[in-house]
Amino acid sequence: MNGTTGGTAARETGGTERVPLPVHRRTLTFDAFEEGGDLLVTAYLRDERPWQTDGRAVLHHMQLDVRVRKSDMVITAADAGMHSFPHAECPLIAPKFGELVGMRVGAGFNSRLQEGFRGVSGCSHLFELSRALGSAVFQSVMSCHARARLEANPVPRPGLHPLPADVVERVVAPIRGTCHIWSEGGVAETKVRAGVDLNHGPYPIPALGTAD
């Protein structure tokens, strides 16, 4: 039930408490599916006005579907769609995002997006989806690797099991430098080198001195 409290829309919680509704809600959702050597990613952006009661309650609802080749992170298919939009002409720009095909998700990806899809060259909301796509694809590839490791080693082994240098490098190289934890020679790399099992046991993964 909508009402007004001090000029703020609110909803009832089943009792007497009235919780203010947000003036705006933006949601980005990414679903990734593994299909052979590819990732299929479906991305959604929704802008909602929970206090509004007509069609403008869902101001924007955008969708972006891409296929990414895991071996080199190149986008091989891309399709954009609009389910809710403010102007009848908005969907005319959707085919522009087919030009994502051929772009590699990696270094320089955001710069190419800025050059080709920002501002009057595209749609600001599909641009935001595309920009967030990079990290979503990266995390999805990491999830593929994690699932493969769990399938290969479903049972945790107690204690530490130091890894050969080439294995450490293969695990760490794609993630190195992405955050303070994965800095070169940092916390996460040290754990991997020491043989901490990152796929089993407590989460968050304890500090190295207590992780064994």
What does this entry show, briefly?
This protein is of the alpha+beta class.
Strand content: 25-35%
User: Helix fraction?
Assistant: 25-40%
Number of DSSP-assigned strands: 7
Order of helical and strand elements: EEEEEEEHHHH
Q: Which stretches are low in confidence, meaning pLDDT under 50 for 5 or more residues running?
A: 1-8
The largest pleated sheet is described as: 4 strands, antiparallel
Number of helices: 4
Q: What do the pLDDT scores average to?
A: 89
Radius of gyration: 22 Å
Structural class: alpha+beta
Strand order of the largest sheet: 4-5-6-7
Principal-axes geometry comes out as globular
Tell me the span between the first and last alpha carbons. Answer: 53 Å
Describe the fold and architecture.
By secondary structure, the protein is α+β, with helices and mostly antiparallel strands. The chain has helices spanning 109-117, 124-152, 165-172, 187-194, and strands at 3-5, 8-12, 18-20, 25-35, 38-48, 58-69, 74-84. The strands form two sheets. It has a four-stranded antiparallel β-sheet with strand order 4-5-6-7, with helices on one face. The chain has a three-stranded antiparallel β-sheet with strand order 1-2-3, with no helix packed on it. The chain is globular, with a radius of gyration of 22 Å. The chain starts with a strand and ends in an 18-residue tail after the last helix. The model is unreliable at 1-8 (pLDDT under 50).
